Amino acid sequence: MGFFNILILAVILFTTFSFPVNATDVSYDGRAIKIDGQRRIIISGSIHYPRSTPEMWPSLIKKAKEGGLNAIETYVFWNAHEPLYRQYDFSGNLDLVKFMKLIQDEGLYAILRIGPYVCAEWNYGGFPVWLNSFNNMTFRTENDAFMSEMKTFTTMIVDKVKQANLFASEGGPIILAQIENEYGNIISSYGNEGKSYINWCANFAESLKIGVPWIMCQESDAPQSMINTCNGWYCDQFWPHQNKPKLWTENWSGWFKNWGGKDPHRTAEDLSFAVARFYQYGGTLQNYYMYHGGTNFGRTAGGPYIATSYDYDAPIDEYGNLNQPKWGHLKKLHSLLMSMEKILTYGQYTNTDYGRMMSSTVYSLNGTRVCFLGNANNKDDITINFEGRKYTVPAWSVSILPDCVTEVYNTARVNTQTSVMVKELPAEAEEKRHYDFEWQWRAEHFEHLKTSLNKSSPLKGVTYANQLLDQKIVTNDTSDYLWYMTSVDVNEDDPIWGEEVTLRVNCDCHVLHAFFNGKHIGTKWVKNGQYSFVFEESAKLKRGTNSISLLSVTVGLQNYGAYIDKVKNGILGPVKLVAPNSIEKDLSTNEWAYKVGLNGIERGLQNIDTKYKREWHSNIPFNRMFVWYKTSFRTPKGKDAVVLDLWGLGKGSAWVNGHNIGRYWPSYLADENGCVSSCDYRGDYTGSKCLTNCGNSSQRWYHVPRSFLNEEEDNTLVLFEEFGGNPTHISVRTVTVGKAVAHAYEGNRLELSCDGSRVISKINFASFGNPTSKGSCHSPNSLSVVEKACIGKESCSIEVSEKTFGASGCGKSQMKRLAVEVEC
Ligand SMILES: *[C@@H]1O[C@H](CO)[C@@H](O)[C@H](O)[C@H]1NC(C)=O
Ligand SMILES: *[C@@H]1O[C@H](CO)[C@@H](O)[C@H](O)[C@H]1NC(C)=O
Ligand SMILES: *[C@@H]1O[C@H](CO)[C@@H](O)[C@H](O)[C@H]1NC(C)=O
Ligand SMILES: *[C@@H]1O[C@H](CO)[C@@H](O)[C@H](O)[C@H]1NC(C)=O
Ligand SMILES: *[C@@H]1O[C@H](CO)[C@@H](O)[C@H](O)[C@H]1NC(C)=O
Ligand SMILES: CC(=O)N[C@H]1CO[C@H](CO)[C@@H](O)[C@@H]1O
């Protein structure tokens, strides 16, 4: 036994005999998750650590806690952590352990969804593309190569988490872990292998001995050792397996956005309705997907065509600001539910159905009771007689009566301010420098278009094949860009000969640019996610050698569906020249030269310290394709989030001080139709309800986290513009609360706040009484009371009552409200 073996033995003995301090016991029964033997209500929210920065994490987690959550959930992102085979990255915003520790520091629980398939609108659902270089690889089924890699990665993550004592069983915050993800949606495509695979997943997970329960979401076939959970817009009608608690792992708080998509909105009224109903019907754990959506930095956006912003209309917005009234309206619900934790988890409950989708639920325990009145009717407010009293419950809402007499919360009555966010030019003296940029430019070099075809002097990085290859296999997804280049010798004897021919390319491309004899002849992409298309453009033949260069561009690899590993990308062929008389020349089995990526990236133009300083020119061109632009700008003062307005640009990628802030595509406008000017929260929500931003740029604003910026020195902004645009409209802005608007009901306390950024400077309007019907009754002191309470303050709190405002002259039975609009 060598020294090394003794060391290992010592480590084993040490681990076996050291007892973790504060170990927490997590178990469950048919009702709830139990922590140290006690049933608990868990209110969790998803925050994905790579979609923000370590500098943002503490404040995001704090705001989640203040919003009434007691747990944070995240996926683990395999392709981010293992970008190259067996080369791991846990630095910067990939520091999972640090993120977990911050959650623990705030006293919150954590839910770790390892997957390692994650969907999540994340590039390729989180899978590293290099997995495809194994023989006989098929993802997410009983396949040795896949299971072996899944096992290696999952075990590595579990070991890392164990070493940091992060599982509750070791005193850490993690109370639940997930293996696989939404497999129930696709299991039928995999037949019996799918069933064996999901059993293997369960047995494998169990073998890792993490000391906390495992969950499988959206998997009705989940093996007995796993808790199956629900994902969706509403989960009140979901019933888990026997002896399993009712858990809702994905309550979609909004929806994500595509390039070309409109802005989705899920109202506070509807989201709180869904949550209240879930707990009314015996639910005990739910998770907001997302609580903070964040940003798809770099090339992490899924696809195809998922936008860089992953705001999700979540309770905390992309930049880390409170999304009001959603955040505040839910906070009130959370604190109420938490105050009823014992009775909701231990009480008996009985439901009574009143017809027309109206129901009541009474929980009782040892003589105390709490009551829910739920109205799932999507049109009618309903008045019922409940235990001798009359209650009117608005359509599509739940009223909560913690003593079964007084309604203290109704999901449709929002007593929280609506914050109107604005994007402003920084106010400081050098203001001009924020938008009056000095630009430099240089062209992307295309020398390889000529030289690559000469095999006796091949360029570095150029490979050859006598066939058309799957793009992601050639690039290993190290770049969006892949050149497919070939040549064709033609003379007058050739049946195809003629001045004009058509180049026809069958393509599964997200974007295709075609060059004929070095000249750009066309660009094509297809809207609405239908990316299998035929490109056709005429070209001029010359005698002798004609070169054809096709640049295929991916915009996020598919992240959802069965067999995503079998989805091919790029130019799959055939590629043909077609003469006017329909004679064709098939070039698909020509010798093709392949070149991955951009020359500019190879030269490091996106970095601050580039050797190629001299190659930048002034007098920038406009609307020219494949151009690099560079400028510098000052960091706006203060703490407000910083965004770039990239209106005027086409499509490309942007770097600030070498950090890739993501793809941009502001020229891609959202469809003109399908928006609403006001949103009716009633009735089932879907991702296509309550849309705004029709006909506008689908993403104009791009987040630059403050930690990417220099405090004192100027910042360097580099753009790679692929389609052509005008960078002179670009400006740097800060995001802040411009106005706060509220309609609060009598009997509530209204908080008004500029969210830490500024003070309330002006009250535009205030009326206590019946403001909806043009002030048929109104307290004359309204404005002065609000002015006195709020002007000059960061936030103020007003009790909405006649006591505060004096007589309003409204009828006794009238429900009075305070309507205000304040400026920050
Ligand atoms: C992609 O990465 C894998 C794993 O590192 C490697 O085996 C394979 O050769 C790479 N493919 C290409 C085309 O570079
Ligand atoms: C791949 O699968 C085929 C049959 O599907 C089999 O003949 C071959 O041996 C497998 N190769 C490897 C490396 O497992
Ligand atoms: C209910 O009351 C009984 C008797 O007072 C007590 O033993 C029990 O712990 C109570 N149950 C809960 C869940 O508080
Ligand atoms: C190909 O490259 C070789 C070596 O550099 C050179 O001698 C030859 O002229 C080139 N051929 C063509 C057609 O450019
Ligand atoms: C389009 O953008 C403008 C300016 O930001 C805005 O005023 C307008 O309301 C937007 N249109 C829609 C339909 O959202
Ligand atoms: C079917 C569906 O819309 N699924 C969504 C559920 O949430 C995941 C996140 O894990 C999204 O990626 C899916 O789009």
From TrEMBL:
Q: What sections of the protein cross the membrane?
A: none
Catalytic activity, as annotated: Hydrolysis of terminal non-reducing beta-D-galactose residues in beta-D-galactosides
What PROSITE patterns is this protein classified in? GLYCOSYL_HYDROL_F35, SUEL_LECTIN
Q: Which UniProt keywords apply?
A: Apoplast, Glycoprotein, Glycosidase, Hydrolase, Secreted, Signal
| Annotated SUEL-type lectin domain residues | 744-824
What's an example GO cellular component term for this entry?
apoplast
Query: According to the UniProt entry, where is the signal peptide?
Result: 1-23
- What family is this? Belongs to the glycosyl hydrolase 35 family.
EC number(s)? 3.2.1.23
Top-rank taxon, per record: Eukaryota
Keyword Signal recorded: yes
Q: List the molecular function annotations (GO) for this entry.
A: beta-galactosidase activity; carbohydrate binding
Give the main localization category.
Answer: secreted
> What does the UniProt entry say about where the protein is found?
Secreted, Extracellular space, Apoplast
Q: Which GO terms describe its biological process?
A: galactose catabolic process; plant-type cell wall modification
Q: Which InterPro entries match?
A: BetaGal_gal-bd (IPR048913), Galactose-bd-like_sf (IPR008979), GH (IPR017853), GHD (IPR041392), Gly_Hdrlase_35_cat (IPR031330), Glyco_hydro_35_CS (IPR019801), Glycoside_Hdrlase_35 (IPR001944), Lectin_gal-bd_dom (IPR000922)
Please identify the protein, giving its name as recorded.
Answer: Beta-galactosidase
